[in-house]
Structure formats: structure tokens, C-alpha cells
Amino acid sequence: MGHGGKRQGAGRKSAFGGDKTVAIRVPEPLKPVLEAWLLDYRHWRTLQHSQASDFRTLGQNLSEMSLPLFASSVPAGSPVAADDLKEADIDLNTHLVSRPGSTFLATVKGDSMIGAGIHDGDLLVVERNAEPRNGKVVVAVLNGELTVKRLDKQHGRVRLLPENPAFSPIEVPEDASFHIWGVVSSVIHKVD
After folding, report:
1. CA gap 146, 139 in Å, rounded
2. 185 is catalytic
């Protein structure tokens, strides 16, 4: 007769969909970054039809990324004399990310938001703690489906509006499983 030890199935159930969990010690400044990532991971685990490769957290890259900023602007009209003086290095995180601990990137799939300047393959900078106000572009989960649309809240009803006339607005029923992951703050678009 055995005494002590671990019983099969005993203990608190994992909040991570059955994955084994471990306790770790982290530096205090990293705690909010890791908590935000874990919260997003739990949300991702609940989605049945999402694509994991399209979801990355900025917190994974804690190093700064600096690029040179030149002293003169680049005109989009008539050409002007070139000025090759470098003014400074800038960190793109300071320009694109106002809330590092609650910001993530998402890759766009599809063209329902082209009228808002969001194209297939673009990277969205999404702030999870920003207020999802009426008219903002949001990343939302509706009945297990991930989407990016413009939020429309009027007269007690919620709709998700595309920015392409080929697509119809999506009505969000009161009994639907609906969660807004965050508000889109920037779009990173490659130029062909």
C-alpha cells in the first residue's frame, strides 16, 4: 500500500487547456509582460478556428530596434536636393507602441478592410488595454472566429463593419460569444 505521492488527475486544473504548468521566478519588471502574454495565450487556446502563426506578442522582443532618421523630409511632390545628414536613431517601439505590456502584433488575412488601409499580409499593432470605442478598428473574436473590423455601437446593438463594399456588416447577437482582443493602433504595410 503506497503512501504519499501524486495521484493521477489530482490537484487544480490548468487554465491552459490541459497543458502541464510549472512555477518560475521572473524579474518584477517582466511580470506584466508575461501576464499579458499568458492572458493572450489562454484566449488563443479557446479559439477553435484561429491560426496560431498569425499571433505574436511584442513582449517576446524586449530589445530596442533603432533605425536612422534623416534630417530632411522626403517630399511626395516635386523632388528636392538630397540631404545626407543623419539626424538621429529612432526606436520604432517608441513610435508604434504606447503600451508595451499589453500590445501584440497580428497578421491580416483577407481584404475586408482595404478601405481603412489594411491589406492582406499587413501587420497590425494592437493595444489590448485601449478602450474599444465606437468607430475604432478592433481585433475581435465572434463565436470562435477571429476578425478585424470597425466597431459600430449604436442604440444598444453592436456591429462589426468591413471597409470593403464587397463585404457585409456583421451583426453581433446579444447571446453570441463575443470578445474584443484590442484596438488597432498602427498598420505595418509593405510597399510592392
Report:
1. 7
2. no
